[in-house]
Amino acid sequence: MPRLEALPSGTTLFIDANIFLEHFLGRRAACTSFLERVWQRDVLGVTSVSVLAEVRHGLLRAEASARFHLPTRKILRYLRDHPESLAALSETRHVLLELQRWPLRIVHVTRGQFWRACHISERDGLLTNDALHIAVMRAHRLHHLASADRDFRHVPRVTLWSP
Question: Whole-angstrom Cα distance, residue 163 to residue 156?
Fold first, then answer.
């Protein structure tokens, strides 16, 4: 499985949520280096609205866990029980505003892609969101994927680039 740092200039690829999260949460320098290449337009990044939803969810959980001093496994219940606390999570809002300025192509997810994802999920053994990423990639004729998720290793006609 090729590494992100070996990705050739000019490559267009789909970016999974974990790449953004690893960068924004400061966990993997390789993800930051890769996303700097996207920012500089050395590589062309494509992602979907559903990926952005995953990114927001992950950022909210991390910020809320730190702000309210709770383990991440308890934070969803806390946020459900205290919905007003979502307004206090300004760092997530700031990161998403920053992400809006990035030179990313953000694609929508269609009903047809969802139904194709159901088939891909069963055929390739992927969970729903991962299968949806593949369906979106196929709809946009993308064959390269930046992800830290090893579940994509065996998906036909997809080159997984990992940090």
Answer: 20
Q: Over its length of 163 residues, how does the chain's per-residue pLDDT go in tens digits?
A: 899 999 999 999 999 999 999 999 999 999 999 999 999 999 999 999 999 999 999 999 999 999 999 998 999 999 999 999 999 999 999 999 999 999 999 999 999 999 999 999 999 999 999 999 999 999 999 999 999 999 999 999 999 999 9
Up-side HSE of residue 128: CA atoms within 13 Å toward CB?
4
Q: Do the beta carbons of residue 103 and residue 97 sit within 8 Å? A: no
CB 118 within 8 A of CB 129: no
CA dihedral 138, 144, 149, 153 (to 10 degrees): 80
Locate 129 and state its tokens.
Answer: 């969101």
Chain length of the chain? 163
Number of other CB atoms surrounding residue 11 within 10 Å: 16
| 157 contact partners, CB below 8 Å, separation of at least 6 | 143
